[in-house]
Specification:
Blueprint lengths: L3 H8 L3 H9 L6 H14 L5 H8 L4 E6 L6 H14 L4 E6 L4 H11 L7 E3 L6 H9 L4 E6 L10 E3 L2 H15 L4 E5 L8 H14 L6 E3 L4 H14 L5 E4 L2 H13 L9 E6 L2 H5 L5 E4 L2 H18 L17 E3 L4 E3 L11
Parallel strand pairs: 1-2, 1-3, 3-4, 4-5, 5-11, 6-7, 6-8, 8-9, 9-10
Antiparallel strand pairs: 10-12
Helix pairs in contact: 1-2, 1-3, 5-13, 8-9, 10-11
InterPro entries: HTH_LacI, Lambda_DNA-bd_dom_sf, Peripla_BP/Lac1_sug-bd_dom, Peripla_BP_I
Keywords: DNA-binding, Transcription, Transcription regulation
Protein name: Catabolite control protein A
């Protein structure tokens, strides 16, 4: 593999000039720049990213921490992050924690600040103390999809008003005439979906409707399936299911099919997020869409700002600003009505 020095000799310039051309920095004449690019093409030179990171103390990559790459939301979000990152010449490393804090800590220890110069974190079940430690070492961290805009997490974040998402879902079912509504929460009572469920409960309370039964389940299709069977076994008069995420909502529709219940004729189902599967299911799933692409762009932009501000003129990492912790708030969630919700069945 050709080296930077070989490219420089071939082009008749210094290695520093080749570096400036490849990084699009410094003052290089157009004739010289073209000569360097021709030498790069002729020799088939490719920069060694790991070596560059070690030499400069910076890496052209960002790390994206996700809890489970098997959840279809995360590949969709990762694609949006990758597209946003490429506009600034960054690559993205996907770090799948499999909802294991120890795996997440290992990623932070081995990648943050070495292979990546910044970390984006979704609901990856990471200990905040580990994230603060990473930040204190000079590697910026941004939380994506923070679900409680009115409760800042103490770390830079992009927040989405998921309480509003739950409220919109509840209001939609109430407007259709449903009053016996079961709820599936894809986390523990105090988990990441708590704000979504609270918004749903707030909508019921405002309308004077009963709270109804609730099941906490795994945030999966199977979790939604099992929870729906349990809800309907406990109360066969339930006419609608609210799920705090699309996957459990899809599981609810599968359970309805196995029970011989038509959707939405005998059971309405609504979720939150608007993943691709929600649009492709039959019937198509009514859901409350969150601005996934917008959040990805905001998160990458904020992380880039933090990366640039964390480096002094000498290129060394500076101490993070402990006084101002930035938060970006996305556009509000929006109800997307499809075929899985309708008026309740006749008693």
């Amino acid at each position: 593999m050709p080296t930077l020095n070989e490219v420089a000799r071939h082009a008749g310039v210094t290695p520093a000039t080749v570096s400036n051309v490849l990084r699009n920095r410094g003052r290089v004449g157009e004739t010289t720049r073209q000569r360097v690019l021709e030498a790069v093409a002729a020799l088939g030179y490719r920069p060694h990213l790991a070596a560059r990171a070690l030499a400069e103390g910076r890496a052209p990559t960002l790390a994206l921490m996700v809890s489970s790459i098997a959840n279809p939301f995360y590949p969709e979000f990762a694609l949006a992050v990758e597209r946003a990152a490429r506009t600034s010449g960054h690559f993205v490393i996907i770090c799948n924690t499999n909802e294991d804090p120890l795996t997440g800590r290992a990623y932070l220890d081995q990648i943050a600040g070495t292979l990546s110069e910044g970390v984006l974190v979704t609901n990856a079940n990471l200990d905040f103390a580990d994230l603060h430690t990473t930040e204190a070492r000079g590697t910026p961290v941004v939380l994506c999809m923070w679900e409680r805009p009115h409760e800042p997490p103490g770390l830079p974040c992009v927040a989405v008003d998921f309480r509003l998402a739950g409220e919109l879902a509840g209001q939609h079912l109430l407007a259709l005439g449903h009053r016996r509504i079961g709820a599936i929460v894809g986390s523990k009572a105090t988990g990441v979906h708590a704000a979504r469920y609270q918004g749903f409960v707030d909508a019921l309370h405002a309308a004077g409707a009963p709270k109804g039964r609730v099941k906490h389940a795994l945030d999966t299709i199977q979790g939604g399936y099992t929870a729906t069977r349990a809800l309907l076994d406990a109360d066969p008069t339930i006419t609608a299911i609210f799920a705090t995420n699309d996957l459990p909502a899809l599981g609810a529709m599968h359970a309805a099919a196995d029970l011989g219940l038509s959707v939405p004729g005998e059971l309405s189902v609504i979720g939150i997020t608007d993943i691709q599967l929600a649009r492709e299911s039959r019937p198509a799933l009514t859901t409350v869409a969150v601005p996934t692409v917008e959040v990805a762009g905001l998160a990458v932009s904020l992380l880039r700002e933090l990366i640039e501000s964390s480096y002094g003129q000498a290129g060394k990492a500076a101490a993070p600003d402990a006084v101002t912790v930035p938060m970006r708030i996305s556009s509000p969630p929006e109800l997307v009505v499809r075929a899985s919700t309708g008026v309740p069945r006749s008693p």
